[in-house]
Write a structure and sequence with these properties.
It is a single chain. This protein has 472 residues and is α/β, with parallel strands linked by helices. Strands 3-2-1-4-5-6-11 form a 7-stranded parallel sheet, with helices on both faces. A 6-stranded antiparallel sheet has the order 14-19-18-17-16-15. It has a two-stranded parallel sheet with strand order 7-10. Helix 4 packs across helix 6, helix 6 crosses helix 10 and helix 7 crosses helix 8. The radius of gyration is 23 Å and the shape is globular.
Length: 472
């Protein structure tokens, strides 16, 4: 079968793709930027990649007409636009119009549980998209999930951040709201078993695990799984805005995502029924089992996808190709080079930079810069990195975004997502037996120039110390 997969670079899409290929399908992956999309060469014959912007109807012409089914995995709840709910409806309408021209027999949409009369903006938006898809001529299947538990999911990473960093938590009262978490493995099973299954056509289903828990209970069970003693006290005086700031400063989430999550977490998301479990013969695992599996993946450095690598986690805009050529004109550049003793050793150190490894020299200054970035509304340094030793274009490294990574060539280019009065790149490249390191800053106005000169005294030992460590 020929399956269209939208959101192929997202948290769910990256995990769904190999499952569809294993089942023998040919998959057309819709992405906004081909440079950000990586897949193994071994499956190249089963994968076609097309660039589509769902807010640009002309680009939807790239979608082939001879498809059998489509997954609609487009969400933007933490996008920069305040009217993201309107944009989601517009995208869905353009998508349906194009699907009506194809030979598709089914559209599958992953939505959120909507069983409360007073919905958050985020959940209302998803319900509106569901209504648009249902109104089309092609049968649609909507799977509504609450909290998805898996290594790299936004919800899981927020829970992990809170439990790891706070022995005692003074929390907002919405932590007593009930929800029905579901393991990422079960979500994927529901998605694959619904594919071209007539019993699921033109219907919406709630999917969830067997446990109904409060967010407080989820935090405490996570602490138990990690053998940590944690104390949680809820207070009624914390406003939604204060709650959002609480999540923003303690966890790796962006403020917009924190705001959207806080708004949604005040609403109970519990399944109305579990009829789809019997319909598709799926037996969801418990929250505790989902936690154990996620922690194993983290310990093995085997995280397939992470929400942190999505563009919504930072301030990056546009395609990677726009940032591949590091500018020189009207820029300040800190250049350094060193002769290397062992090429493979240096490459491995470069490819392990950031995250838990750190930046090899004056890590406390990097941490301070990340904290200051958070204070001024930036991404900070808490995003870390998804994998410990592998890097792909589009990945995040603390407050940097990877725009180019070629390990064989020994070249890595990072673009800064921190708050800056200008643009910054950090570049490493190995030519023969020499490592070249360059920090480039393109200032914006007088404030950009003042910023560069204010941090210039630190560059001497930070960048000098870093390149020295990379060759030893």
């Amino acid at each position: 079968m020929k399956i269209l997969l939208t959101g192929a670079t997202g948290y769910i899409g990256k995990r769904l793709l190999p499952l569809l290929i294993d089942q023998g399908h040919d998959v057309i992956c819709c992405v906004r930027d081909k440079n950000r999309f990586y897949f193994p060469e071994t499956v190249a014959q089963n994968v076609q990649v097309i660039e589509v912007d769902f807010l640009n109807p002309e680009s939807l012409a790239n979608i082939p007409l001879d498809i059998d089914a489509a997954y609609y995995l487009i969400h933007s709840m933490s996008g920069a636009a305040a009217n993201y709910n309107e944009l989601e409806s517009i995208s869905a309408n353009y998508f349906v119009e194009r699907m009506n021209e194809t030979t598709a027999k089914q559209i599958i949409y992953l939505s959120g549980i909507v069983n409360d009369k007073s919905l958050s903006k985020h959940l209302s938006s998803r319900k509106a998209v569901e209504d648009v898809l249902m109104a089309g001529t092609i049968p649609s299947t909507t799977l509504r999930a609450g909290i998805i538990v898996g290594s790299g999911s936004a919800s899981f990473e927020i829970i992990r951040d809170l439990v790891d960093k706070l022995p005692v938590m003074i929390t907002p009262k919405w932590l007593n709201t009930k929800c029905q978490p579901i393991a990422i493995t079960d979500v994927l099973e529901f998605l694959t078993k619904s594919l071209l299954n007539p019993a699921t056509y033109n219907q919406s289903f709630d999917i969830g695990g067997p446990d109904v828990l409060t967010y407080k209970e989820m935090l405490l069970q996570f602490a138990e799984a990690k053998k940590l003693k944690r104390y949680i006290f809820t207070i009624p005086v914390m406003t939604p805005k204060l709650s959002s700031y609480w999540l923003y400063f303690v966890t790796s989430t962006s403020f917009k995502l924190a705001s959207a999550l806080v708004s949604s977490m005040k609403v109970e998301v519990v399944c109305k029924d579990n009829r789809i479990n019997n319909l598709l013969n799926v037996k969801p695992i418990s929250y505790k089992q989902a936690l154990d599996r996620a922690l194993i993946k983290i310990n093995e450095d085997n995280i397939v996808s992470s929400w942190k690598d999505s563009l919504i986690s930072g301030r990056f805009k546009g395609n990677l190709a726009h940032y591949l050529k590091v500018p020189k004109k009207d820029c300040f550049i800190d250049r350094r080079k060193r002769e290397i003793l062992d090429r493979e050793f240096t490459i491995e150190k470069i490819w392990s930079i950031g995250g838990e490894t750190g930046w090899y020299y004056a890590d406390w200054l990097w941490s301070m810069r990340g904290f200051m970035d958070k204070i001024f509304g930036g991404v900070g340094a808490r995003r870390g990195r998804t994998h410990k030793k592998t890097i792909f274009p589009g990945d995040v490294l603390d407050f940097w975004r990877v725009v180019y990574a070629d390990k064989k060539q020994g070249k890595l280019i990072l673009y800064a997502e921190m708050k800056l009065p200008g643009e910054a790149w950090l570049e490493f490249k190995i030519i023969h037996n020499t490592l070249y390191q360059a920090a480039t800053f393109r200032p914006q106005g007088i404030w950009g120039k003042l910023y560069w000169y204010s941090v210039l005294p630190f560059h001497g030992f930070i960048f000098n110390g870093m390149i020295n460590k990379l060759i030893r």
